[in-house]
Specification:
Blueprint lengths: L1 E8 L13 E12 L8 E10 L2 E2 L10 E8 L5 H5 L2 E2 L9 E9 L30 H24 L4 H7 L1 H11 L4 E4 L2 E4 L11 H15 L4 E6 L4 H4 L15 H11 L3 E2 L3 H8 L19 H15 L3 H4 L6 E7 L7 H5 L20 E7 L15 E5 L14 H9 L4 E4 L7 H8 L9 E6 L21 E8 L1 H6 E3 L4 H4 E4 L3 E4 L8 E8 L8 E8 L6 E6 L2 E6 L8 E7 L5 E9 L5 E11 L2
Parallel strand pairs: 2-6, 3-7, 10-11, 10-16, 14-15, 14-16
Antiparallel strand pairs: 1-2, 1-5, 2-3, 3-4, 5-7, 8-9, 12-13, 17-27, 18-21, 19-20, 20-27, 21-26, 22-25, 22-27, 23-24, 23-26
Helix pairs in contact: 2-7, 8-9, 9-12
InterPro entries: ALGX/ALGJ_SGNH-like (IPR031811)
Keywords: Alginate biosynthesis, Periplasm, Signal, Transferase
Pathway: Glycan biosynthesis; alginate biosynthesis
């Protein structure tokens, strides 16, 4: 992270008349402070985002004389697509190193920096140099073509519907209302040997701009480490059965806003499987169960949906040389049943019905549901593998492990069977939103051998932003302990705001602050203010929250205008979560803890505060 002043800024062409839809522009920066990281030259060139799809980027406004703070990486480490995109470059000094800002903001004054790395005498690499890590040019080309095809298809659909998302959405209101009326009575049906039940259907705008921005940032984080991201949003089961419980025309989508989200992501170079619903509909009569329809509120995929997702992903990962080169694992399929895994979360906790639905003599309602599991050559089911050697990394929550992780029946296992490459699997139950932050916690070495990171998302994740890596890496920052609060001292340092203390929050010397919902099935939230110690000598501060593992609370902290957030996970082994903020004149942090349960209380054991001299 550096601070400096822009001394020369290349003129950015007009987006609306430029022959290229995407463009970066360059600016010379004279660096005043190296706040963290390695030595860099005192003078360098920043390659700044200008516009994409002829829409100006937030960074398009910088001008000569602006003082900025930026987190930068070598431009040579950026993806090939970025390096080959048009640049407005009027800088004649070719000896200056090119840097790419991951984050950049205008500032009013420079930080009073203490000890910092010395400036590099000369650039570590000339302009135009490429990263030492070998790039798969064929895979990069195929990836670009795939994104282009998917984007063209969505644009054609939009044009066929008049070119207006809102009018397209409104034109389908009758079908959505018809489906909603059916939804009230929970109809189910066997069609030949395939069982279907009505399920949730996204009826509103379906996603938030914050989610799109955070997923783009996650993609950029991986791209800077030469890892591609492939996203697949697992549909709500209502998206697979909407035409079976309404008169929705064949091939139509009840909520085109989902396609608008896909379009925004594709235009930002995020690869997302856009045709998963048509694929699932084309395959839904090949399986007795696509989802667990016997419980309308149950969202996890059954064998059918898991297979379809794995097939779509397998087609894409086979473009990578490093994946094709892996000797194929010896895997085969075995017929297994839910009766072999009754202690799984789905059956033991969610209380779903592990037996076949009634109404088909071929599948008796007294028999356990059967499906295929992936087994190794030593007759063991393929379970979760967490290492750092596989070129395929799968990240996600419980949607990556159903119908049964224990029995090798899930998206990840089916992907291994179809490709012959067993992925490493980074998993957090109930917390897709925490994936980017969790991955950053593993460190860059965890990604060194990856070609691709696959993210099968839960459908509801699109409502809010993902937890992005903190602005300061807590594992690398030179930090100083400033304060620590536990047991009674926690009470002295915080002030509860929106809940009576005796109703939702209790204190014990051994368990700290315990937040517990008042109703058995309720989800509550609590808010408190933490008074900060004096932090004037620091530029940033780190808050470490030590909590008891096992809950899935959402912890949001606000300091001035800055917000940082972590989603805890039922399967998270770590006790420590970190939040990072720049030091301001504000002397407190406001915490909001939501998704507080009665059966799984949230226990805050300790708060540690560290200062970071940047």
């Amino acid at each position: 992270m550096v601070e400096g002043v822009l001394t020369q800024v290349s003129k950015l062409p007009k987006a609306e008349t430029n022959p290229y839809p995407d463009c970066y522009y360059t600016a010379v920066i004279e660096i005043k402070n190296i706040l963290s990281g390695r030595s860099v030259p005192k003078k360098a060139v920043l390659v700044l985002p200008g516009f994409f799809a002829r829409q100006y980027a937030p960074e398009a406004h910088f001008k000569a004389g602006d003082m900025v703070r930026a987190t930068v990486v070598p431009f040579a480490s950026m993806p090939e697509k970025v390096r080959q995109t048009q640049q407005a470059d009027e800088v004649e000094d070719t000896e200056l190193e090119l840097l790419s800002p991951q984050q950049i903001t205008a500032i009013g004054a420079f930080t009073s920096a203490g000890q910092q790395p010395a400036f590099a005498v000369s650039p570590p690499a000339p302009r135009g140099a490429v990263t030492d890590k070998k790039r798969d040019n064929n895979a990069a080309s195929e990836r670009r073509e795939q994104i282009k095809r998917d984007l063209n298809q969505i644009n054609q659909l939009l044009e066929a519907h008049g070119g207006d998302w809102d009018k397209w959405y409104k034109s389908l209101e009758k079908h959505r209302n018809q489906y909603w009326q059916q939804f009230q009575s929970s109809p189910v049906k066997w069609i030949d040997d395939s069982f279907f039940g009505i399920g949730e259907l996204p009826l509103d705008t379906a996603y938030s701009p914050d989610f799109v921005r955070s997923l783009v940032a996650f993609k950029n984080y991986l791209s800077a480490r030469n890892v591609d991201l492939i996203v697949l949003r697992v549909p709500y089961k209502g998206e697979i059965t909407d035409d079976l419980f309404s008169d929705l025309p064949a091939g139509e989508v009840p909520n085109p806003y989902l396609l608008r989200m896909y379009k925004e992501l594709l235009e930002a170079d995020v690869e997302i499987v856009t045709d998963i619903v048509p694929r699932a509909k084309a395959s839904r009569f090949k399986f007795p169960l696509m989802y667990w329809y016997s419980d309308r509120s149950e969202r996890h995929p059954a064998e059918g949906m898991a297979w379809v997702a794995a097939e779509a992903l397998a087609e894409r990962v086979k473009r990578y040389e490093t994946i094709v080169a892996v000797p194929p694992a010896k895997l085969h399929l075995e017929k297994v049943s839910t009766g072999m895994d009754l202690n799984s979360f789905l059956w033991a906790t969610e209380k779903c019905n592990p037996f076949w639905p009634k109404g088909n003599s071929k599948y008796k309602a007294t028999d356990y549901v059967t499906f295929h599991g992936v087994y190794t050559d030593n007759q063991k089911p393929l379970g979760r593998k967490l290492g750092s050697d596989s070129p395929i990394l799968v990240v996600g929550s419980s949607f990556t492990e159903y119908p049964s992780l224990k029995l090798g029946g899930n998206i990840t296992s089916y992907l291994a069977y179809l490709t012959g490459v067993v992925p490493d699997m980074l998993y957090r139950a109930g917390s897709d939103a925490s994936i980017p932050r969790m991955l950053a916690r593993e460190g860059d070495s965890f990604l060194e051998k990856r070609a691709v990171c696959i993210f099968p998302m839960v459908p509801m994740i699109t409502a809010s932003a993902l937890d992005l890596p903190p602005v300061v890496d807590p594992t690398k920052a030179a930090r100083t302990s400033v304060a620590s609060y536990a047991a009674e001292t926690l009470v002295q340092s915080i002030k509860l705001r929106n809940a009576p203390k005796d109703a939702i929050c209790t204190l014990s010397p051994s368990e700290g602050l315990t937040f517990k919902a008042r109703e058995a099935k309720g989800r509550e939230e609590a808010e408190f203010i933490l008074q900060l110690p004096t932090l004037d000598k620091y530029s940033f501060f780190i808050i470490e929250l030590e909590t008891k593992p096992g809950d899935a609370a959402i912890i949001k902290a606000t300091h001035g205008s800055k917000v940082d957030m972590v989603h805890k996970s039922y399967s998270q082994p770590d006790k420590i979560d970190t939040l990072v903020f720049p030091v301001t004149s504000e002397d407190s942090v406001t915490f909001n803890i939501s998704n507080i349960r009665s059966d799984i209380p949230t226990q805050l054991l300790r708060i540690n505060i560290y200062g970071v001299e940047r």
